[in-house]
């Protein structure tokens, strides 16, 4: 998509907005939530596992389930049964409420189950082994009934101990950070590093059983008087589990300046535990995951492959991880020479790219390493222990979020040490410096010229990583002995693909969540419908394949896609300004989540999950003056100077939160409740305004499209969740809806002056026509569909239906309605879903016809598009693969959403 029309329209909006700033009157009438619904049908819901295998070796799973409005009161309890009708213990809590107070979403935690489960109203079964939490002493003690974990309340030790029965399996769980104060760009210099330890600031028990307990630990990494790199850790425990899960988040608050070699460069970032070693060296076992379910299976002191044979049974037992018989029963030619067999105490698996890992070991510090194998993609799993107990550990998305590493140290001593490196210390330091020197773009005029050649919106000091975040997931098991090969394989599976219980698409549709009527289950009953379904499948498969072919992996990159393809170089435009990383431009997040909602497909869920983890953390600022804003698409995820609400949009996070009850995503959504304050800090239109504008907290220029949709999504979510600021959030939802409805031209007015203190828009006395092709393509239609379903405000409905009706109308129709046309617009295919929505809501048959006309025959993809890939290989491309040079991420997101919504709304009225 060309940047020039976009900027022209922004400029026009700025001029129009400025012209109207002198004739406003404050509106004061309060709006109301929709009246209470009649009791709805509340049939039992069949839950199933996203992938085959059930819970497996994971500690537990939590699922969000939606309910029709009025189905259940807020205090409703729920019971869960398996396929045989046997009660399954479940812990339930509310996630969201309808405006009438009835339950909209509930969360359900389980710690057992392998097949389908039925959820219905009733009394929950209590687990035989409950999760309990005791925070009365100097530690927070969590017991699952199988293991007991002591969590520190201060200091640098997050996990004091992990016990199984009376046996201590692990202890001294802590965070490790290695800082490199200078980065050397040449081949000379001395590398110096310093280690920081995680220091606990606050510990909060968020849930305390009986099925699930959650403990949150917040703090910073500290050395001496300096504390930096804030962390937020959550530990998850489930009833009867021998394992626990860690969700680990860091927020970057260091300094790295372009052109300078000194700064806060992360050389290593990890989680470390100590593991007591009680068994004889030949009964101590090392397990390290390789490709797939592959494992390195060794003992610290190996007795296989020796010149003298201790006996086949002894060798087999050691390989199996079983306690060996007394050495006096072995062949004495081995027994009498045990002291001469090396003890291998240290192991390292390093995954420095998505394409290769190396494994090495040594006897102990100070002695040489030897190669122990390697491969392409390691599972991120390890184990150290013995016949009397051991510790399994794993890092999710290990190779996808390279460079990662697993270390085992001192396994030959009384205490081994394991470190899961989220950033491998053997990789290059984490270099987040902006990538160019500005090239003389010192003024707004020069920056706009730069925009017109590389599509990058540059501004000095704006391309900063300060405040971006990243979340990682880890699993730990306290084993009573070295697990069997099959048990280890199940643990590997849990690390690679965390089991997830899900509600079926039909329940999501029936509950009318995420926009009533906007999605329906795939339907191939007619050739026309089947063809669109084929196109949707093609696009998803293509992007999934491109992630692999183009290696869109890495700690900061995994989960995002690229924006636009370079047909000459046969690569995506990874190095060209705003054409590189997509950063949620035109809502690919929404495309993926709606594709999942209607299909229930695991592969789509996992793609959308990775994108949500990325776009909500990396593309958004969480600290500093731009906290609450996201960054427009660019070569680096934080490079562009357009810091905007549309990228931080809570709409993109709602799906994953409500489907999984993920607390970290809940944090992100709550943090946006006050993001309207950012309009005081940064004017989104500062480069294109022609008249003076100084942000005034009582008269802030806020657009009704990309700005308001980002704000209202956060307010709506806080209201629904009954979060700490829900009453303020509700008031702002209602007052801003009323303010838009009261404008002379409704949404077509384009923007309004917003009062931060009252949460209201001033009502203009003069009508203005200010429409952008971007206004509705960052979730506005989907949000308005939800709001119209939730809130009884006919004037708002009419204002939005009018916007839908006239965006794709002819210029003559626009002028007849508003006195002037909307100017040069784009993205008509994407806006056909607005036609479809308004057609259904108003019963307008002509609008329904136009929806399909614009879908099939305007811009974007058409039936005559190639709908296929072409092979590429050397010397044309770096690696062999495929390309669809006609595909762009903007068009894909818009086509995907328009196809899904038009099929659901008007599938029975296709041409």
Structure summary:
The chain is of the alpha+beta class. It has 21 helices and 38 strands. The radius of gyration is 29 Å and the shape is globular.
Average pLDDT reading: 94
Percent helix: 25-40%
Rg (CA only)? 29 Å
- Report the sheet-strand fraction: 25-35%
End-to-end Cα distance: 28 Å
Which ranges are low-confidence, i.e. pLDDT below 50, for 5 or more consecutive residues? 1-31
User: What class do helices, strands and sheet pairing give?
Assistant: alpha+beta
- Main β sheet profile: 20 strands, antiparallel
Shape: globular
| Tally of separate helices | 21
Tell me the number of strands. Answer: 38
Question: Overview of this structure, please?
Answer:
- The chain has 911 residues and is an alpha+beta fold.
- The protein is globular and about 100 Å long.
What distinguishing features does this structure have?
27% helix; 26% strand; 20-stranded antiparallel β-sheet; 5-stranded antiparallel β-sheet; alpha+beta; disordered N terminus; 38 strands; 911 residues
Write the layout of secondary structure elements.
Elements: H1 3-19, E1 24-26, E2 45-49, E3 61-66, E4 78-81, E5 87-88, E6 91-97, E7 103-110, E8 117-121, E9 132-134, E10 139-143, E11 147-152, E12 159-164, E13 167-182, E14 194-208, E15 212-223, E16 226-238, E17 243-251, E18 262-276, E19 284-289, E20 295-299, H2 312-320, H3 332-335, E21 346-353, E22 356-362, E23 370-375, E24 381-386, E25 389-395, E26 404-409, E27 415-423, H4 444-454, E28 469-479, H5 485-496, E29 501-502, H6 505-511, H7 527-549, E30 565-566, E31 571-572, H8 588-599, H9 602-617, E32 630-631, E33 643-644, H10 645-648, H11 651-660, H12 663-671, H13 678-681, E34 700-703, H14 706-721, H15 726-742, E35 751-755, E36 760-764, H16 780-790, H17 794-807, H18 811-818, H19 828-842, H20 845-857, E37 870-872, E38 881-883, H21 889-906
